[in-house]
TrEMBL record:
Organism, scientific name: Urochloa decumbens
CDD domains: secretory_peroxidase
Catalytic function, reaction form: 2 a phenolic donor + H2O2 = 2 a phenolic radical donor + 2 H2O
Gene Ontology MF annotations: heme binding; lactoperoxidase activity; metal ion binding
Species lineage: Eukaryota, Viridiplantae, Streptophyta, Embryophyta, Tracheophyta
Residues the record lists as binding heme b: H194
Protein name, as recorded: Peroxidase
Amino acid sequence: MAIKSSVLLLLPVALLLLAGSSPAVAQLEIGYYSKTCPNVEAIVREEMDKIISAAPSLAGPLLRLHFHDCFVRGCDASVLLNSTEGNLAERDAKPNKSLRGFSSVDRVKAKLEAACPNTVSCADVLTLMARDAVVLAKGPTWPVALGRRDGKVSSATEAADNLPPAFGDIPLLTKIFASKNLDLKDLVVLSGAHTLGTAHCPSYAGRLYNFSSAYNADPSLDSEYADKLRTRCKSADDKAMLSEMDPGSYKTFDTSYYRHVAKRRGLFQSDAALLTDATTMEYVQRIATGKFDDEFFKDFSESMIKMGNVDVLTGAEGEIRKKCYIVN
């Protein structure tokens, strides 16, 4: 039976201090803003309620923003910075061209600036918004340790080099995750975030057309599903068409993603790759039974805590941006 989103998962406090040996992580605290901005979580949740109520499909993109932030320079809100003359920022890197939700982050940040000027970092705002996006999509909740600072550097080249690609196989994905102190279990668990959101045709069209000299389509993709995808994605150059990453359930955080993957109906090559490794395949097949939703919710919460602590800036490092899209 799935854990309801209103139930707080009782995770060990030690988990909040995970993410390798980085000394900065130990400086993140539950209740970090208890004296300087005591209502921070309530303000974020109130605005997120309005955002997701008006546009439920934004839950996936807001969660994705947090992922794409943490995998490049750590969780420092560098993905939110605009490009400037002479510098192409992360958000304009090819893998980030389809990111959405920036205006929602600006909206929440403005509310916090009105209540607590120059206090709450954009990195903490994005981390809280990602958690609340999952909760509001009927997923689990978890405690978020705060105290991140905002980075001052954002590089499109670094984004292209560090983000896990949709075409990634297990060796490549494992290497990228390990560089962030995330392990194989985190990889298969965090892939479950694909239960939310949509993807543009170019991110998976390579599986449908001219896959290799031997196959037109990716043989690891269910042929009936491939035919269905071709009706939506007419060519690899179709940049307008969207497909649901978790068909029929893309606005709800649940375990149906794993059932699709188990049937060879994962949208990306990186989804299909989960069936090529014994450990990840076993996890996919276990969660796909629908009997361990509570286990997945707990695992996802723990992995999100780890990811949210990757290479964070704390103390006197970085800054607290007034506006998330520009350095002070």
